[in-house]
Design goal:
Largest sheet: none
Strand content: under 5%
Low-confidence stretches: 1-44
Helix content: over 70%
Shape: globular
Order of helices and strands: HHHHHHHHHH
Number of domains: 1
Radius of gyration: 18 Å
Structural class: mainly alpha
Number of helices: 10
Length: 247
């Protein structure tokens, strides 16, 4: 199983890390003194919420750490409203056979987010410096954005009369899924080893909640959607494992 990351393919990892890259690029640009336009040279045309956040981050009166965090918090609130709106639209359009599975998916996503907040707090409590304050705000934002976009995509597919997604094969029968899970477990173990002992139960709870979300969501997505979810988790665990304990 060596060389797993390279075998995942560039497309998978662009999706995996893209979820965390959007505001991260802006944050790092702010920290390093790069203009937002330069920092986003490789980012596709943004949603109005993203564009508003970029404009906010570029304002001189929002250049402090507090101001930058406020910009990202505002974007998170905007994406949460978008998420709620997309969820209401989806509920109205779902065929009867899909309503319960989607409700389980949404409930498990929310439960996972609630526990994830505790994990982020535990990791970033071990760090020092404004860079990590910004990084935590970014990591609070990105999963909300991801879920809003996933729900929007589901609404668009149903509205266009698309077929229901083909249920993914077992992960063990899907090489990309199996390889992604290998990397996920590798970064999970790395993060667990670096976490303070007292905080490790928080990591265990967060990972169990995320696994429940993945399991509940798999019946309503296709294999690419599953890879997106796992890939985003790999990116999160990698980032946290590289962050914990930093000064």
């Amino acid at each position: 199983m060596r060389g797993v990351t390279s075998r995942l393919g560039a497309d998978v990892w662009r999706r995996a890390f893209g979820a965390l890259a959007l505001t991260s690029t802006v944050v790092l640009g702010a920290v390093l003194g790069v203009t937002p336009s330069a920092a986003h040279a490789e980012v596709a045309a943004a949603d109005p919420i993203d564009a508003s956040m970029r404009a906010c981050l570029a304002r001189s009166d929002m250049s402090s750490t507090t101001g930058q965090v406020q910009c990202m918090d505002n974007a998170r609130i905007g994406w949460k409203a978008a998420l709620d709106g997309a969820w209401q639209q989806l509920q109205a359009k779902l065929p009867q056979t899909q309503r319960k599975p989607w409700e389980r998916s949404q409930a498990s996503w929310q439960a996972s987010r609630d526990v994830e907040k505790q994990l982020l707090a535990a990791v970033f409590a071990t760090t020092h410096g404004s860079m990590y304050v910004l990084a935590e705000a970014d990591m609070q934002l990105q999963p909300v954005r991801d879920r809003a976009l996933a729900l929007r995509s589901a609404v668009a597919r149903i509205s266009a009369g698309g077929d229901l997604p083909r249920r993914p094969r077992a992960c063990t029968a899907d090489a990309q899924c199996e390889h992604a899970m290998f990397d996920l477990n590798r970064y999970y173990r790395r993060l667990q080893a670096r976490m303070p002992v007292r905080s490790r139960p928080t990591l265990v709870r967060a990972q169990k909640a995320w696994t429940a979300y993945l399991n509940a969501t798999t019946p309503v997505i296709d294999e690419r959607g599953r890879i997106d979810i796992i890939g985003a988790r790999v990116a999160t665990l990698k980032r946290l494992s590289e962050t914990v304990g930093n000064d």
